[in-house]
Amino acid sequence: MSVDAPTIVASADGTSIASYRAGTGPVVILVDAALSTHEQSRRLGALLEPRFTVVRYDRRGRAGSGDVAPGAADPAREVEDLAAVITANGGSAILFGSSSGAALALEAAAHLGDRVAGLVLYEPPFIVDDSRPPVPRDLPERIASEVVAGRRGRALALFLREAMSIPAVGVAAMRLTSNWAAGKRLVHTLGYDFAALAGTQDGRPLPRERWGGITARGVVMAGERSEPFFHDAARALSELLPRITYRSLEGGHHGSAVMSPGGIAAVFDELWASPTASA
Length: 279
Known about the structure:
- Helices cover 39% and strands 17% of the residues.
- By secondary structure, it is an alpha/beta fold.
- An 8-stranded mixed sheet has the order 1-2-4-3-5-6-7-8, sandwiched between helices.
- The protein is globular and about 45 Å long.
- One of its GO terms (molecular function) is triacylglycerol lipase activity.
- InterPro entries: AB_hydrolase, AB_hydrolase_1, AB_hydrolase_fold.
């Protein structure tokens, strides 16, 4: 069972990062998606804890973590945050990332070398072809402007409609749920998600040189029920990184990492917890 008392570590710029550790075994750090805190990793963490030391943490500016430079949205700062969490938990870790969290995990692996011992990536939302429209280039600025003006609901609606392609009727329905208030509380952090995804949202091939330093082995997955562009992105990434293999998650969808993570947990067991798992 997860222990909810956080450990606070200091990132390189002095930002306080809250993390939550439980379990025993190889260290796994869970990197959440946009508009999420460590709470969204609770189910996956609980499945992994019997065989892994699981560290859930709040990304910069979210929940228990601070941000000494709000609005700067530099992915290098989030890599430094992950480096601090890794250091506080033995010096190396397997990283799991979902959606934009997968993009951040890739950035960390590219910059932190063998401190990242493995990668499990779920649906990095890269747009590598015409299987979905590109994200408008000015969307991050428009969302930031709405946040500065105090119109967090409008900012959230922009993200859901133009980045996630949720129809207007779906956004209207979300306004009636508790997720809407939670999203409004975190909408100011979307700049970090857009920064981690920069250069991957316009329908062009992935930048081959961007992750050239990655040596970790692992898996990139897309859910069987998810939109085709997630699968196109996962395949394209596996073609760039020879130690990262592509899989389709049976029955999976974009929310599987939060709602039904059993198939994702099984991949960790296969690669790192089973007696036959290879280095």
